[in-house]
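Example 3.2
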Amino acid sequence: MLRFICFLACILLAPFSSASAPTAAPLELRIAVVSDGRADYFIRLLEESLKLIHQPYRIHYVKDIPARRMWWMLEKGDINLFYGMQSKEKDSNAQLVAVRNALTNGLIGQRVLLIRQADANVFAQVQTVAELKRTGLIAGFGAGWGDTRVWKAAGLPLYEHAAPWSTIYAMVAAKNRNVDYLPRGVIEVMEEARTHPELVVEQHLLVEYSADFAYYLNASVASYRPIIERALKEAEATGLKARLIEEAFGADIKALRLNRRLRVRLSAAP
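Structure, written as tokens:
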């Protein structure tokens, strides 16, 4: 009798044991990117993190749309994922869902200046925020960037550039266009200096404040947030994120010699 019961149980359970576990539905992602390579790390981090937790996904890229239009498209749902500087405005926007992870581990809030070679001696004398202000030199930012609030809170003069961002480098070089230097993140300044040899990397200062990039989702795919957050958390725990940062930016950051620079701290924007 016992043998018969075991035989019967095996027959009844066989269909269940042979069936494979259900596969998670793929994330359907429409992402805005630019084709100059600036998005490479952020896309690779997303893809490699999802692979780490065996989460299927499909990505459709929308390329080379102006950044301000990309945010409009994200709100409208024409795309459903974009990355950018964290801000209270974005976090409180009902059409956006913030994925809670500091994508560069704070590196974007460490700023080195792109300057004219002729101004190098002026910056070399700066020791404090007050002294930077007294130079009268004007920092350049894109219109509406969150960094502008940090500079304004510190009383530092600035210029907001509404035209295509690529034109501002020539404006700095020209010396007569109301913008004198560009505060750029340590993950981007060296590449920009290579692309714009009319400017040089300032060698003395490291301006620091609390800031980072985050992924933002359209509210229609809010259900993706816990999945992506889990993937990014796993990427941190396994060292994947640190490795990707090192591969993407390590050589350039090392070349900046941050430990030899004077650190000037700015308060985060209110």
